[in-house]
Design goal:
CATH superfamily of one domain: P-loop containing nucleotide triphosphate hydrolases
Oligomer: single chain
CATH topology of one domain: Rossmann fold
Structural class: alpha/beta
Strand content: 5-15%
Helix content: 55-70%
Largest sheet: 6 strands, mixed
Order of helices and strands: HHHHHHHHHHEEEHEEHEHHHHEHEHEEHH
CATH architecture of one domain: 3-Layer(aba) Sandwich
Low-confidence stretches: none
Shape: elongated
Distance between the termini: 66 Å
Bound molecules: adenosine-5'-triphosphate, magnesium ion
CATH class of one domain: Alpha Beta
Radius of gyration: 37 Å
Number of helices: 20
Strand order of the largest sheet: 6-7-8-3-9-10
Length: about 600
């Protein structure tokens, strides 16, 4: 039941912030009392203008107010002055309570929003990589922004306005009934009209707002993708197409927003008409009551003021309902996210080794990405002894990256076992284990920070950081090129490292992996964007830098893997060949074919 869960959430938030809630609600209560008390003094002031006032004829509320005054009404001017002082004083006190009410109740909702965002962000860090593969980042963004905002509005403003409606309505009504029962019934008629109007327009406003919100999300997702892929857009002359797509989205957004405005405008119009009608009803029947002597002019003034005081809460009721419905829906989406189990391996509490040797073993590992998809890896078994380099080669889409994903626990196997130093991968605290791994993904990702900070990503601040960055950049054959940049290692990279070349980005990613001083190095096709000569140079330096490390080297090119200790050849997820480079070269099979073809291509180039 989402509603129950939302109520429990609200209850918890309010209980955790009980102190602020109490201050807020006491202020709300006292403020409402001030608001309800003020018209009584206006009534007395007007009444005394008509002649002497008598507590016995002023009704219970009027009589109570008269007891607060020191003047008994023998001096009309003094009596009026005192009433004015009370009215002004109440307005001032009301101002103070309005402030404390709003400040403390809204404070609770802001704090709750902050904590919710923090919790969501932390939780997102623990979710398996597959969650992000299958979820649009725009959707995650809107959970973090518009959904948390909707929950905040439910926790704060909705609760505040609901509280104020629930307090002022019975108080004002009770006084109105005590002033004149018949007139109160007549005055309620337009108010009922107002409730009907609220119930009619609010859902419409909400429906179109939701549609407009969805349009807006699409617009920002579209814009984001367009700007990120701006080179592709330009190269394929898609600008006009993109503009017309955006135009269509914009037009739909406009249509829905106009529908929101139209309904809001009609609602506002109905409020004014019904408000005017309410005034008319009170005036019409009030005048008859005054003429019949059942109603004083002061009563009439106070009655009109209470009547107006009732309007605002009635209008608020529709808005509050909308906030509650929307907040509950958003809260449900957020709870769904928070209830997603972190990948079992992501759960902390497993074995956290202080050192590893780096022996890796795959036993009959099988995995597919989707239920009915092809096997990305099919009963793969291999061992990498500590300090050895195992290369994985094979045609595109054969499952090479999948091997890396499995080892880093970014993907879980469907069957089979993966062991590190003889212990199952899932027995480890994966975060602790990953500290010994360094990974250069196939598509290098750099942050918009300096080159130095990008390379030192896995490192703590400390002495020797700059030297280390330089050493690993040298190992990745990148040092010279970085030194030639305008600000050297302090050069800021644009978004995703756009001001580096593809090959430079790859080498920056290699340097970053080395800087972590790992036990196990996973290189996924990370030299594809450099020429064979540079590759030769980097491999030579890498060999030195990675001495003693266990290396999983994934590559397309046979030339890349010729120095590996062992090679496995994958085809459609299956290991079809396995051996040392020399063994494979002499064996008829996929590896020898690939080697021949690539040598030929190299010669032609
Ligand atoms: N996130 C994913 N969701 C669904 N299928 C995937 C996913 N990642 C890979 N695959 C599929 O799994 C198979 C193996 O993919 P993998 O990325 O391991 O290939 P690869 O050998 O690294 O290819 P390349 O040389 O092009 O990098 C492919 O058929 C691919 O379509
Ligand atoms: Mg790959």
């Amino acid at each position: 039941m989402p509603a129950v869960e939302t109520l429990r959430f609200l209850f918890n938030e309010y209980r955790r912030n009980a102190r602020w809630m109490v201050i807020g609600f006491v202020s709300l209560l006292l403020g409402t009392l001030c608001q309800v008390a003020a018209p009584v003094f206006i009534k007395l002031a007007i009444d005394i203008l008509q002649g002497p006032v008598d507590a016995a004829r002023e009704g219970p509320v009027g009589a109570f107010a008269m007891r607060l005054l020191s003047s008994n009404g023998s001096d009309a001017q003094a009596f009026i002055n005192e009433c004015l002082i009370w009215t002004g004083g109440l307005a001032l006190v009301l101002g103070v309570f309005q402030f404390t009410k709003r400040y403390y109740l809204i404070r609770v909702s802001r704090k709750s929003e902050y904590e919710l965002k923090k919790r969501m962000y932390e939780h997102l860090q623990d979710l398996p990589a597959t969650y992000f593969d299958n979820t649009r980042s725009g959707g995650i963004m809107s959970l973090m922004t518009s959904d948390t905002e909707a929950v905040r509005m439910m926790v704060g403003p909705a609760c505040m306005y609901l509280g104020s409606t629930l307090l002022i309505t019975p108080m004002a009504l009770a006084i109105m009934f005590s002033l004149n029962t018949t007139l109160t019934w007549f005055a309620l008629l337009p108010l009922i009209g107002l409730i009907v109007s609220t119930l009619w327009f609010s859902p419409r406003v909400r429906r179109f707002s939701v549609l407009a919100q969805e349009d807006l999300e699409q617009i920002s997702a579209r814009a984001q993708e367009n700007f990120a892929g701006t080179r592709v857009v330009k190269a394929f002359s898609r600008e006009n197409f993109e503009v017309s797509e955006m135009d269509a989205l914009g037009a739909r957004y406009l249509k829905h927003k106009l529908a929101v405005s139209r309904n809001n405008a009609m609602f506002a119009a109905s409020i004014w008409v019904l408000g005017g009608l309410g005034g008319l009803v009170v005036l019409f029947f009030g005048a008859r009551e005054i003429a019949a002597g059942r109603f004083s002019q002061g009563d009439f003034a106070a009655f009109s003021l209470y009547n107006v005081q009732l309007y605002w809460p009635m209008i608020m009721l529709g808005w509050v309902t909308m906030l509650l419905v929307r907040g509950a829906a958003s809260h449900k989406r957020i709870t769904d996210l928070l209830n997603l189990k972190p990948d079992s391996a992501e759960v902390r509490g497993g074995e956290a080794p202080s050192e590893i040797k780096g022996r890796i073993e795959f036993r009959n590992v099988t995995v597919r990405y989707s239920k009915d998809g092809p096997l990305a890896l099919d009963s793969a078994s291999f061992i990498i002894e500590p300090g050895q380099t195992l290369a994985v080669v094979g045609p595109v889409g054969c499952g090479k990256t999948t091997v890396a994903n499995l080892l880093l626990r970014l993907v879980k196997p469907d069957s089979g076992e993966i062991l590190v130093d003889g212990t199952l991968l899932e027995a480890y605290d994966i975060k602790a284990l990953r500290r010994f791994f360094a990974y250069v993904p196939q598509e290098s990702f750099l942050f918009s920070e300096t080159v130095k900070d990008n390379i030192a990503l896995g490192l703590d601040e400390g002495a020797g950081r700059d030297e280390l960055v330089k050493t690993v950049a040298e190992a990745a054959a990148l040092d010279e090129e970085i030194s030639a940049l305008p600000s050297g290692y302090d050069t800021m990279l644009g978004e995703r490292g756009v001001n580096l070349s593809g090959g430079q980005k790859q080498r920056a990613a290699i340097a970053r992996a080395l800087a972590k001083r790992p036990r196990v190095l996973v290189l996924d096709d990370c030299l594809s964007a450099v020429d064979t000569q540079t590759e030769e140079r980097i491999l030579g330096r890498l060999k030195q830098a990675s001495r003693g490390l266990t290396v999983l080297l994934i590559a397309q090119r046979v030339s890349t893997v010729s120095h590996a200790d062992r090679i496995i050849v994958l085809q459609r997820g299956r290991i079809v060949q396995q051996g040392t480079p020399d063994e494979l070269r002499d064996q008829p099979g996929l590896y020898a074919d690939m080697a021949r073809r690539q040598e030929l291509a190299e010669e032609l180039a």
